[in-house]
Write a structure and sequence with these properties.
This protein is mainly α. It has a single domain, classed as Rhopdopsin 7-helix transmembrane proteins (Up-down Bundle), CATH 1.20.1070. It has helices at residues 8-14, 23-51, 83-87, 90-102, 110-135, 139-164, 167-191, 195-212, 225-240, 242-248, 255-265, 268-288, 290-294. It has 13 helices and no strands. The protein is globular and about 55 Å long. The longest helix is centred in the N-terminal third of the chain and has 29 residues, at 23-51.
């Protein structure tokens, strides 16, 4: 008995596809690329920036205004110098403090809890460090500003990995990102090299954008990573458009001032997810023990 020959169309359909790379593999590839770029930036950062005509001062900016600072709005309010850039850090500090206050009341997976704690602590430190820096901008104060941001970045990256890859990979992500970011924050003051800091920032943004496109894993608490990265991207755009925003608003508010507010709003998706998780846990507890709920 002769078997009917398969048509080329069916034969092509029957050919199995190569399996897609796992999320863990993609994460390892990102880590390898980030570390490679970071080492190149560490070794040749100033030379590369000079060759590209982008030499930066210790503030990490190419341009200083007539008042000697890299930010356009230097107005004094009630004796407070650079008042708008100082006071706009209050939402950052409040978001971090609120998160740290509510976190002990929420039951989260271990690594997610640690990453969330790091994220909120970083926001609080960023608010305080940035307010100090903007009060009297100098290179030493900028280190403290960026150290708070380094802690925040590490928490955000670990949360993204916990939500989209898993608890296991999120743990080393937290510590590796924290180490790289902290060292990078100090390098402009120590070696005059700001490029590793740029690699950490934009490499971290790339990881979160990739995580947005992945499915949540078991144990995810439902952080809206798309909203988080959107607020952070807006903050970066406002920072880059500091002077343009200031003049567009009739010298009312600068881009850098609005950047602080946008960065604080990036905490909202994490706050919302942790609060929703806490409510869900309390509802389950009440359903299991109706007498306790009535009490």
């Amino acid at each position: 008995m002769r078997l009917p020959a398969l048509s080329p169309h069916r034969a092509r359909r029957a050919t199995p596809r190569a399996p897609a790379p796992s999320a863990e593999t993609a994460l390892l590839a990102w880590a390898f690329c980030l570390l490679t770029l970071w080492l190149v930036a560490l070794w040749a950062g100033p030379v590369l920036l000079d060759a590209l005509g982008m030499a930066l001062n210790p503030h990490g900016h190419r341009h200083l205004h007539a008042h000697g600072h890299p930010f356009v709005d230097a107005r004094t309010l009630l004796g407070l110098p650079n008042a708008m850039d100082v006071l706009s850090n209050l939402p950052l500090a409040l978001a971090g403090a609120w998160g740290l206050w509510t976190l002990p009341r929420v039951s989260l997976p271990e690594v997610t809890h640690r990453a969330t704690q790091t994220f909120f602590a970083g926001l609080l430190l960023t608010g305080l460090g940035s307010a100090w820096y903007h009060w009297a901008p100098d290179a030493a104060g900028l280190v403290w500003d960026r150290l708070g941001m380094a802690v925040t970045f590490a928490g955000a990256l670990s949360l993204a990995v916990a939500e989209r890859v898993g608890q296991g990979p999120a743990r080393p992500t937290l510590w590796v990102a924290l180490g790289l970011a902290v060292v990078s924050a100090a390098l402009p003051q120590l070696l005059g090299n700001v490029l590793p800091w740029a690699v950490v920032q934009f490499g971290g943004m790339a990881l979160i954008v990739w995580a947005v496109l992945q499915r949540p894993t078991a144990g995810a608490i439902g952080i809206r990573l798309g909203a988080l990265i959107a607020w952070y991207a807006l903050a970066k755009a406002l920072e880059l458009g500091d002077e343009a925003v200031f003049h567009t608003t009739g010298d009312l508010v600068s881009g850098h001032t609005l950047k602080h507010i946008a960065a604080a709003l990036a905490a909202w998706p994490v706050l919302a997810a942790t609060n929703a998780t806490g409510k869900a846990v309390r509802l389950r507890q009440n359903a299991a023990d109706p007498g306790a709920a009535r009490a």
